[in-house]
Specification:
Number of strands: 0
CATH class of the largest domain: Mainly Alpha
Order of helices and strands: HHHHHHHHHHHHHHHHH
Strand content: under 5%
Structural class: mainly alpha
Number of domains: 3
Largest sheet: none
Low-confidence stretches: 172-176, 187-191, 285-311
Shape: globular
Number of helices: 17
Radius of gyration: 24 Å
Mean pLDDT: 76
């Protein structure tokens, strides 16, 4: 292994996360040197200074709850693919060539689906390449957002899927905010008449409560819900992306959805200024004032396009 030094100091200077226990620089140094050497070996001809790679790696680590050791956190990162992404962002020609060959060249096959014109797929792939590798200052290329968590191929595919989704939606009326789109899938039709009533009568309050509840989720939870409900990735695809089983993905989705659901209810009740008992009484009065019955309202709601629960 090539002798390098100063990696631990570089890593700790750029890391924004908490480690438990605090890393010992003497033990951290060979760990980082091994990560750099192993990653460089994976991509022959792609040269990246060790301190540049280590700084890039440290900046993309995310806090965990509870905090874990630096060794555990690094085990969750695909350092080899993060190395390639970092080299691409530095403009290393051999890295960009490897990225195009190993990732971008596979996109057309991954994006192919019935009824999808080949010309549109070509356009999406070209836009994905530009978005990932090129950006006008002060913006950064999209590839800078890759954190190493999950496979780079899956992450690239998601970026392309989002581009394709935006292209399809450009031909349709502008969608509601993603928070409300996600929330529509939370209670199944007919399971919560209270919320359906409030959604109709107090739409503005409802949207505000949903938006606030959604913003209260962690970055990881929002990202997961966005991938599932907006980008329409299946639990199988998400499991592959996150390198966990489908049961784990289903539990994560259920927990995040329930959090949004309960927090929206709590915020809406608070916004209306009612106690729990008054809240229920209020709903009874509201029901009597509506011209349509709850069943009719839910029937109309069922007629609308709706994102379903876990597949």
């Amino acid at each position: 292994m090539e002798q390098v030094s100063g990696l631990a100091a570089t890593f700790l200077a750029h890391a924004k996360v908490r480690f438990v226990p605090q890393p010992d620089p003497a033990a951290l140094e060979p760990l980082l040197a091994s990560a750099w050497e192993g990653s460089r070996t994976q991509w022959p001809g792609v040269e990246l200074p060790p301190t540049v790679f280590v700084a890039h790696l440290a900046e993309r680590l995310s806090d965990t709850n509870p905090p874990v050791s630096v060794e555990s956190l690094l085990e969750q990162v695909s350092t080899e693919e993060l190395y390639l992404a970092c080299a691409c962002l530095r403009g290393v020609p051999t890295a960009i060539a490897a990225f195009e060959r190993q990732y971008l060249a596979k996109l057309p096959k991954l994006l192919k689906s019935p009824g999808q014109p080949a010309a549109m797929i070509d356009d999406v792939c070209q836009l994905a390449r530009e978005k990932l590798l090129v950006a006008a200052p002060p913006e950064k290329p999209k590839l800078a957002e890759y954190s190493g968590r999950g496979s780079l191929m899956g992450w690239v595919r998601i970026t392309a899927v989002r581009i394709a989704t935006r292209q399809r939606m450009a031909e349709k009326p502008a969608p509601d905010r993603e928070a409300e789109t996600i929330f529509k899938a939370l209670p199944a039709p007919g399971l919560d008449a209270e919320l359906d009533l409030i959604k109709r009568r107090y739409h503005a309050d409802f949207k505000a409560a949903v938006r606030e509840a959604f913003s209260g989720l962690s970055d990881d939870e929002r990202h997961l819900l966005r991938l599932y409900f907006v980008d329409q990735l299946s639990t199988y695809e998400l499991a592959t992306l996150y390198r966990v089983n489908q049961g784990t993905i289903s539990r994560w989705l259920k927990s995040a959805r329930q959090t949004v659901y309960e927090e929206t209810r709590r915020r809406l009740q608070s916004r209306l200024g009612l106690t729990t008992r008054d809240f229920k009484s209020f709903l009874a009065v509201l029901d009597s004032q509506l011209e349509l019955s709850i069943s009719q309202l839910l029937g109309e709601d069922d007629a609308r396009p709706r994102t379903t629960g876990p597949r």
